[in-house]
Specification:
This protein has 259 residues and is α/β, with parallel strands linked by helices. It has helices at 18-28, 42-52, 73-82, 105-122, 134-141, 159-167, 184-192, 222-233, 237-251; strands spanning 4-9, 30-35, 57-61, 88-97, 126-131, 150-152, 171-174, 198-200. Helix 8 (222-233) packs across helix 9.
Length: 259
């Protein structure tokens, strides 16, 4: 069976118990899941989940742009105390969101930079959220090119954003949106991204792929994202599984694959 990794999910937001979700993942060939910390309340929960569900589940710590106004020294202190944990594989979910503007834009930019600096200090990759903020996202990333690696998560942006992110050394991760009927422009971006710079994810419980639209998303459905990406790229599922696993190994060296 092909081995898959969901590089971005929110296990603590799912209705099913994480242990049950993990069993469904393993049955579908999803061997690794990265569960994402987005705010102070998430952080201890995802760390505990990752420790409990080793070696299949890992986690990240970060503050989402929606919560940038709540970023405090105490939040950063918790992150610092755990970023060296073997289960914590990235600083995420970080970035900019000008669609909802739940936090002031200046604050979003400040906290985005601050967390990129944390990632550089700890030698960790980042997973970036960007919505309606492409120019500012690239401007903020430019000084970190070659110093911080990472990926644009749940990519829904323009070809311009993909090209600039790739040129700065950042990878691209695609979600179930690539299966949506109205996602033709996104599928063109998928076609353009080199196979060795590409990842798949669910962003569960959000953005459920076809054929499960209308249901809550779950990490085992990453296989259906992969099916569409493989179709677009003109490769077999085995080829895509091998390549995305290799990409994840390079991006997240703390993830163990030997068990």
């Amino acid at each position: 069976m092909n081995q898959w990794i969901d590089v971005h999910a929110h296990l603590n937001m799912l209705e099913a118990p994480p242990e049950e979700t993990l069993q469904a993942c393993l049955a579908s060939g999803v061997e690794r899941v990265v569960t994402i910390g987005t705010c102070a309340d998430d952080h201890p929960v995802v760390v505990e989940l990752a420790k409990k569900l080793q070696p299949h589940v890992y986690c990240t710590l970060g503050v989402h742009p929606h919560d940038a106004a709540d970023y405090t020294d105490a939040v950063e202190t918790f992150m610092r105390s755990h970023l060296n944990d073997p289960e914590v594989v990235a600083v995420a979910e970080i970035g900019l969101d000008y669609y909802y503007d739940h936090s002031p834009r200046d604050q979003q930019k400040q906290i985005f930079r601050r967390q990129l600096e944390l990632a550089r200090e700890f030698g960790l990759p980042v997973e970036i959220h960007t919505r309606d903020a492409e120019p500012d996202t690239i401007d903020i990333l430019k000084p970190f090119a070659g110093q911080v690696s990472g990926l644009i998560h749940c990519f829904t942006g323009t070809q311009w954003l993909a090209d600039h992110a790739l040129s700065l050394g950042f990878d691209i991760s695609f979600s179930g949106i690539v299966t949506f009927k109205n996602a033709d422009e996104l599928r063109k971006v998928v076609k353009s991204v080199p196979l060795d710079r590409l990842h798949v994810e669910t962003d569960a419980p959000f953005l459920t792929p076809v054929p499960f639209r209308g249901k809550k998303n779950s990490p085992e459905y990453v296989v259906h994202v992969a099916e569409k990406v493989a179709e677009i790229k003109g490769v077999t599922m085995a080829e895509l599984a091998a390549q995305t696993k290799a990409n994840a190994k390079k991006m997240f060296p703390k993830i163990k694959w030997d068990s």
